[in-house]
Amino acid sequence: MRLALIASFIMASVTAMAMPLNTRQDLANESLAFKYNHIAERSSTISTSTSNTSGKHPAVATARAPTGNNVRDGVYVSCSKPGVFALTFDDGPYQYSWDLAKSLNKQGISATFFINGKNWVNVETDSVTTSEGKKTYMEVVKHYKAMGHEIASHTYEHKELAGLSEAEIEYQMNTQSNIIYKAAGVRPAIMRPPAGSYDSNSLKVLRKLGYSVVTWDIDTQDWLTHDLSQEKVAYQIMDKDTSSTIGHIALEHEVYDQTVNGLAPWAIKYVKSKKYKFVTMSECLGVAAYQ
Ligand SMILES: [Zn+2]
């Protein structure tokens, strides 16, 4: 079983690396890129940390990097307190979003949606058929909030941020903030970098723009497997939890039928059986949701 898992991971890695950049599958590839970029980040943090004293933005330390046992390299990887669980969905909105938000609300669960403006759909121009009729995606974004969920940023075009310039990062974040504001009247203060890709420069820019940066500690790899038996494996870390274990942040993607109709219902039952309280990202971290 273990060998089979390792083999499937290697296969997945080879497949992912062989794919051309910017394919849809590659864009959804959060976890593999996270592993690679995270290694790069560790070394770049050291080499660039003293190079910010000149240039256009001398006042670099605009927001302090968070610290704590739920933070790695200035990025939140889990909640800041025990007993809570943050269910998060990336890459939407898409055709399932309206009804997913509604279904979670009916179950008394508040989740967090890390959304793009132009990824699987163009939020500003596209529409979708839902159980409540045709809706624009701008209405879908507003609906997340109306259903008690939190809206967070995942950049405008699902851009991997490592290596981008300050101007490019500002464009991605500000364009997305403007769309969310136009749709729902709020500007997000929490973001998740696509593919978990960031470097010291992008973290600096994101902090300057007022964002708390979040990844995850439960990676279902749903975008890759579309298979519940494999997705369940990521949740096994919870079997070792004690009453003092800090709460979890689970990564899933709302753009797949299997995630919405297979993984999410199973995960909700599982997390409830562990007696965790579902919380939004801001409550999980103890930071502001909106700017
Ligand atoms: Zn993503």
Question: Would you spell out the secondary-structure blueprint of this structure?
Answer:
Blueprint: H1 2-18, H2 24-27, H3 30-48, E1 71-72, E2 75-76, E3 84-90, H4 97-106, E4 112-115, E5 127-130, E6 133-136, H5 137-146, E7 150-153, H6 166-184, E8 190-191, H7 200-208, E9 212-213, E10 218-219, H8 222-225, H9 228-231, E11 248-253, H10 257-273, E12 277-278, H11 281-285
Parallel strand pairs: 3-4, 3-11, 3-12, 4-7, 8-9, 10-11
Antiparallel strand pairs: 1-2, 5-6
Helix pairs in contact: 5-6, 6-7
Zinc ion binds at residues 30, 90-91, 154, 158, 194.
What does this protein look like?
It is globular and about 45 Å long. The chain has helices at residues 2-18, 24-27, 30-48, 97-106, 137-146, 166-184, 200-208, 222-225, 228-231, 257-273, 281-285; strands at 71-72, 75-76, 84-90, 112-115, 127-130, 133-136, 150-153, 190-191, 212-213, 218-219, 248-253, 277-278. It contains 11 helices and 12 strands. The protein has 291 residues and is of the alpha/beta class. Strand 3 (84-90), helix 4 (97-106) and strand 4 (112-115) form a beta-alpha-beta unit. It has one domain (28-51, 60-285): Alpha-Beta Barrel (TIM Barrel), CATH 3.20.20. Strands 3, 4, 7, 10, 11 and 12 form a 6-stranded parallel beta sheet that branches. The structure holds zinc ion (ZN).
